[in-house]
Design goal:
Elements (H helix, E strand, L loop, with lengths): L1 E5 L7 H10 L5 E7 L18 E5 L2 E4 L3 H12 L7 E8 L11 H11 L3 E7 L12 H17 L5 E7 L10 E3 L5 E2 L4 E6 L5 E6 L3 E2 L7 H6 L3 E7 L5 H11 L2
Parallel strand pairs: 1-2, 1-5, 2-4, 5-6, 6-7, 8-13
Antiparallel strand pairs: 3-4, 7-13, 9-12, 10-11
Helix pairs in contact: 1-4, 2-3
Amino acid sequence: MRILLTNDDGINAPGFAVLERIARQLSDDIWCVAPADEQSGAGHSLTLTQPLRVHQYNDRRFAVKGTPTDSVMMALGKLVSGKKPDLLLSGVNRGANIAEDVTYSGTVSAAMEGTLAGIKSIALSQATVDRPVGEDAFEAAETHAPDLITKLLQAGWPESVFININFPPIAADVVKGVHVTEQGFRDFGATVIDERIDQRGFTYYWFGLGRATKNPRHETDIKALKEGFISVTPLHLDLTHRETLGHLRASLAS
């Protein structure tokens, strides 16, 4: 199995080293093409107004001066020689990518780009609340991901779907299990925009992640992590809201 690895935290991020160790338990045909620098929050953005530069570390390891989407496109269009990858793994992201995070996340968007190219794709993220940010913080992901990925590949999923996995911020031996979940939703009312003054007296702003969490009765990714479970959420490329199609067609028919 040929596996392409990427992320949005950058090729030197601790979580990417964890992802490499996870992947090498599944195959020895590993290609690494990731952003040269952190691209958190880049979403599914594509660089169109400036050239892309690539640093090659060895035959199968490249850093792209661009976004996660740039990295996947460069990998598939230029850098990975021979056959197309069978699997794309994106992550392991530092911090969860749950609820509306998936619309901003470069980690998730890299998996989306792989799916658009016809490759089975999985995004992996490790919640790190109250955990140090070194590789030890990724213990749950590193321990449980290889077996979980194997089971997912055996189960299979449709071509237009990709998988979003989030690991709870707890030690691997106390993870309660795996829940297949819906994408949750959080309240944006608590978003924090911190206003500061730089050393030259100019104002600047820093976005915080102070969003409050809703607690719906549905089995969501938010609920699973909060209760100590790994969440596995199938996401779909088709953003069409089917329930509204008939209503709008009838309303606009005249």
